[in-house]
Amino acid sequence: MREARPSLAIVVRAVLYALAITALVLYAPTEQHVFIYQGF
Amino acid sequence: MHGALTDPERAASRRLMQRGAAHHPITWGVTLVFLALIDVGVTHSVLLWGPTAFEDTHDMRRVVFAQTYQAARKIYAPDPVVRTPVALLGNSRIFLSARESFVQPELARLPAARDASVVNLGIFGAGLGDQETLVRHLGRLHPELVVLTMGTSDLLGTAASPLAGEPARLLRVGWASGVEPRDTPVERVDRWIRTLWPLYRFREFARAALEDRLARRPDPGPFPEHFASTRALFDYIHGSKGERVEVAYRAWRAAPAFAAFVDYLKIGSDGYLELARQRAAGPVLTEQSPGARVLDAVLTGLADGPWTTLVFLMPENPLIELDATGEYHRPGFSAEVAAIVTRVAERHQVRVVDARAWMPAEAFIDFDHLMPDLSGFQRPFAEEIAAALHA
């Protein structure tokens, strides 16, 4: 019997998930500290 | 027909549809593969580490972020010409006075340091807690020598000059907590994920780089490789106020009284004078003070590394001794702190170079910062690096 290959649906979903997670990592709110350097 | 599904394939496909591809373990396995590819594609490429406009900002609200990004780039995507790295840790004092373009030609003249490449990791306002975080990354750079540069006021933590700030927040990695300040459980988990996942570690930088490349903002240009005159320096630092600052500076040089120097600073550097006042009003320091404990942690991290470590007490403007009212300094403070630094360094068998009295008043922009290039500090500093490499 042939081994089942990941279908196109799986690959497309995986790409979308990976992009969504990447977007979430990059654009999720992070701590905002506005530190104004006063050295000059 | 070619491409038609066989009965078993059709049955498998139907089962998959029923379970939903979203819940199929293979979907998440393949997702991880794509995430790894995206991670490498971003964190090992010019997308993250190529030249950006934001890193050259003159906006003091963004300058610490920009310089932290540059320090990270020097560690994770080093210049191919770097051969024997000499890492310089510190804040604006070293950022300005030991630029690679100033120190490198001096090192080239010294046989013991001919192969050395200075990697200036200085960041404006970086405190000792920030250095402790940077040390966690130094293994990637494989430095031969690490020079921890500091001013005596670095042992103080003030609102304008905290022991740890934005660099420590942006670069936090490692399994163990830093010394100061203690992190919350959420920050701890965040640090662990940053340690494991490079894209997550550099997410703030990746976002800024991506936006920079999409928006194509005008680039004010990198920090100059050399300064021909004080006027050129003041124009770079103070912009449109450069001419007035130069006139006041010349007035002080013509009649070098302390009050004239303060008048010169008031024109372009009022914020700096406030910082100096805060330091002068700071607490009395001992070896148990938070700053001394953080220094101990930095040196613990450095002493664990496969490199030679040097603590370098940066030059201080001798003019400060003329501050008779003690508005901008506390008499005796510098010597007390130097003694504390020396004792803490001795515990780690780290040599201290005390350069506080190396330079004359005219070599300084203010009470702390040497004139980039024009001060000539790079010459004796390069000799000290050569001596440490040769030892």
Short description:
Helix content of chain A is 50%, strand content 0%. By secondary structure, chain A is mainly α.
Structure description:
Helices cover 50% and strands 0% of the residues of chain A. With 40 residues, chain A is mostly helical. Chain A has one domain (1-40). The mean pLDDT of chain A is 78. Chain B starts with 6 loop residues before the first helix and ends with a helix. With 391 residues, chain B is an alpha/beta fold. A five-stranded parallel β-sheet of chain B has the order 2-1-3-4-5, sandwiched between helices. The longest helix of chain B is centred in the first third of the chain and has 19 residues, at 25-43. Among the domains of chain B are: 7-43, no CATH class; 62-166 and 271-390, 3-Layer(aba) Sandwich (Rossmann fold), CATH 3.40.50. Chain B is globular. Chain B is built from 18 helices and five strands. Chain B has helices at residues 7-19, 25-43, 46-49, 63-76, 92-97, 100-108, 128-135, 166-171, 185-196, 198-201, 203-215, 230-238, 242-254, 258-268, 270-280, 290-303, 333-347, 378-390; strands spanning 84-89, 116-120, 145-150, 308-313, 351-354. In chain B, helix 12 packs across helix 13 (242-254) and helix 16 runs parallel beside helix 17 (333-347).
